[in-house]
Design a protein that fits this description.
21% of the residues lie in helices and 31% in strands. By secondary structure, the chain is α+β, with helices and mostly antiparallel strands. Strand 4 and strand 5 form a beta hairpin.
């Protein structure tokens, strides 16, 4: 599989295979109107968090099993960053759909008491 930037794709279209085209189409591109409610995490900021990522499944619809909530734990801390539901990536950011109030409540319950929990895109800390 080959991963190309948009510039590389434009300069060398003969290097594309079906997997590359699929990746470019699904992950690279300008922000769209529906992306207005998307929270962004800088890829370089992931260094602040442990390599192991936690996934929590929450939701009442049957499809919720296929849409886990991504949670990063801060290195050397009991703090967590709840990113949300992963929706894509750009060259510089990971894109997540923020959680609604009910999903946030479920995450806080599942992580347990005594934890510092931040939600991506929100300035507040969960109780």
């Amino acid at each position: 599989m080959t991963c190309l930037t948009t510039r590389q794709w434009a300069e060398h279209p003969h290097r594309l295979d079906s997997v590359t085209v699929l990746l470019l189409r699904s992950t690279v591109g300008a922000m769209k109107a529906e992306d207005a409610h998307i929270a962004l995490l800088k890829i370089e900021d992931k260094a602040k968090y442990e390599d192991a990522i936690t996934y929590i499944y929450a939701g009442t619809d049957p499809a919720a099993v296929h849409k886990p909530i991504t949670i990063y734990r801060e290195k050397n801390s009991s703090g967590y960053l709840v990113a949300g539901r992963y929706v894509g990536v750009t060259e510089t950011h990971l894109k997540y759909k923020p959680l609604d109030a009910e999903e946030q409540r479920v995450v806080v319950e599942k992580l347990g008491a005594g934890k510092i929990i931040r939600f991506l895109g929100a300035d507040s800390v969960a109780p």
